[in-house]
Structures are given as structure tokens and as C-alpha cells.
Amino acid sequence: MRAFIFPGQGSQAVGMGRALADASPVAREVFQEVDEALGQNLYRLMVDGPESDLLLTENAQPAIMANAIATLRVLEREGNILLSDKADFVAGHSLGEYTALCAAGALDLSTTARLLKTRGRAMQAAVPVGEGAMAALLGADIEKAEALAAAAAEGEVCEVANDNDPSQVVISGHKGAIDRAVALVKDFGIKRGVLLPVSAPFHCALMKPAADVMSEALAGAPLSAPVVPVYANVLAAPIATPDEVRQRLVEQVTGRVRWRESVAAMFDGGVEQFVEFGGKVLGPMVKRISPDATATSIVTMDDIEALLAAL
């Protein structure tokens, strides 16, 4: 069994998509459709920067999605294959869940781009700059991370945001609480705490205003049943109906990204091969979660051709 997986924020870089667009009209079509849906030249920003603008959440989220979908579409068109024939499940990390839903036909490309633009703006606006923070806990399992977060909160929000793999957990919340947590890591047997260069504290209770915005946006968005089940971040389990997709995407804004559990559940359910599109972030996580699984990252035309030969 095989799962197609899609990366989240942090996999953006100036120059992304250029080589793919130069090599394939299919990729160029994807980037053009996203530009038209957003009414901006996002592709030019992806290719030329400046990096400071690409890093803005409202730009980074649709850019990462567009790059991943372009990679997948080239594979599908060049190889004349259907996702439903080659993947048993799809999943994505945070914003990557929207990409997964687009890949599986639950959302069309233009709608996905607009939803991610809205999501990025709403997440940025939910908390004034400087009031929130996130930190990666290296050498931390989920139990240590939860204990640290509880100790550091002191009445403020300090929560596990991303359970990425057995050795990395991300926490999110008020800046003071996150700073306290970083200072306390050694007391909880955690190797290091590293503040992340993010503009807002994602996936915690402080994102409630953004969840309200997304609830309204998703209520009016056209959604179909995905052609293969999608593993939801907040459940670490598959979902398959439009109503459930809407509900889980709203919950995801404030909820934990249960990536470690999702990968483990897919592997335990028979998925042996994980294929990441548009990034090289999730593959290493997969190997740390399920060492016996195979993980492949598809970024370039050479990667696409090698995967086509293997499918």
C-alpha cells in the first residue's frame, strides 16, 4: 500500500517551482491557475522573491500547495496515471492537508488556493505580532513535551502544536510561556528547545479567531468526497465525507497536528511506501516514525521520472 503526502509551512524557498515550470507546461498551468485565483503573481514571488514576502504566511501557504500540486500533476499527466490507482491514502502536514484534499479531488485548485490565502491571513491576524511564539523541542517525545508545556504555562497558553516524530515536538502559545518552556527543557530531559522564526503561534488556542474565519470560509466552499481517504491531522485517522472534511479543517486551526500518529497508523494499516510531493521535510520524519517504511521525496523532473519507472 502507498500514501501520497504533502508538506507544510517551512518548505518554501525562493526559486521553488522554476525548474518544474521550465520543463513542463502542466506545471505552468497549475501556477497560472493559482495566480488567477488569487489575483496576484504568486509564481513570480515564488521564483524571484523577495524572501521576506514569500515567508509571509498568506503567501507561503498557497505557494507550498501550488508547488506540490504542480509536481503531482506533472506525474499524473506525464505518466498518464490516476492518483486513485497509485495511492491508498493521502495526508498532509498542517496546510499540507489542504494540498492532500486538492490532490484527492475534494477541493479544486482555485478553491484550495483561495482558502489557504484566507487561512494565512486569518492566522496572522489572530494574534498581534510579538505576543505569540513557537519552539521546536529536540530530543522530546510527546509525554515530555506535554509535561513541559503544562509546567511552563503559568496561566498562559502553552500547548503541543505539532507531534512530528519520536524525537521532535513543537509547542505554541504566548511568548512568555514559550520562553519559559525553552529555559526549562533540561529539567524535563529534553535535549534542546529552539524558538522558531514564525509570525504567529499556530495550532493552539490563541488561533480561535482564525478558526472562526475558516469555519465561515469552508461553509461556503465547494467540497466533494475525496477519491481516496484523507488522514486528518486532528484525528490521525482517515476521513471521507465533505461535512467531516469541513469540521476537521476548522478544528485543525487550533488543534494539534498529530503527524507521528498519522504515519504510524498508516504504516500499521499496511502502508509501506510514502511519497512526498514538493518537499523533503516529511520523508525523514516518516523514517524516524516507521523505520521499515520507504519514503521518497519528489521535487524535480528527474524525481518524477524515477517514480514513474517505479510505480
The helix/strand order is EHHHHHHEHHEHEEHEHEEHHEHEH
Query: Which CATH class of the largest domain applies here?
Result: Alpha Beta
The secondary structure category is alpha/beta
Number of domains: 2
The total of helices stands at 15
Give helix % range. 40-55%
Strand fraction band?
15-25%
Low-confidence runs: none
Strand arrangement within the widest β-sheet reads 8-7-2-1-9-10
Question: What's the mean pLDDT score?
Answer: 96
Query: Given the C-alpha coordinates, what overall shape results?
Result: globular
What is the name of the CATH superfamily of the largest domain? Malonyl-Coenzyme A Acyl Carrier Protein, domain 2
Tally of DSSP β-strands: 10
State the distance separating the first and last CA atoms: 12 Å
CATH architecture of the largest domain: 3-Layer(aba) Sandwich
How large, in whole angstroms, is the Cα Rg? 18 Å
CATH topology of the largest domain: Malonyl-Coenzyme A Acyl Carrier Protein, domain 2
**Biggest sheet architecture:** 6 strands, mixed
Structure report:
It is a single chain. It is built from 15 helices and ten strands. The protein is of the alpha/beta class. Helix 2 packs antiparallel against helix 5, helix 8 (109-126) packs antiparallel against helix 11 and helix 11 (208-219) packs antiparallel against helix 12. It is globular.
Give a brief rundown of this model.
The protein is an alpha/beta fold. It contains 15 helices and ten strands.
